[in-house]
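Hey, can you fold this one?
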Amino acid sequence: MQPQPQQPAANVSIGQPAPEIDLKNPDGKEIKLSSLKGKVVLLDFWASWCGPCRMEMPNVVAAYKKYKDKGFTVYSVSLDKDMNAWKNAINALGMTWENHVSDLKWWQSSVVPEYGIQGIPMAFLIDRNGVIVASNLRGDALDQKLAEILK
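Sure. Predicted structure:
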């Protein structure tokens, strides 16, 4: 059972720099969140087994397709524990961006306490300087905020 959503950790708030994440992609390559500085990044916490995450993913995919050429990308952090389920969901959901990471430790992942994650999906929008500018934007709200930032 997944915990109920609550407020993020005190060190994770709008106007603050996003704490570093350094996890591996499905091929075992480390990808640091900070390596994306200079882009607007949706830091998206999700998992293949999370129904609400899967329901929201078409909105994230649409935003990526619409804004990727304007300096936007997605950094997806999976709370999966099964490598095959994680890889299959990435393909099945059309998550074509390159920044997929996980430590495959489920709720024991190091990012859970760092970001105060108590439920997923959870997302933070990070500006080109690595500062959190919004959280948990869904659907049209994500599109509207990206349109405003990436004019």
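Residues 1-8 have pLDDT under 50 and may be disordered. Let me know if you want another pass with a different chain boundary.
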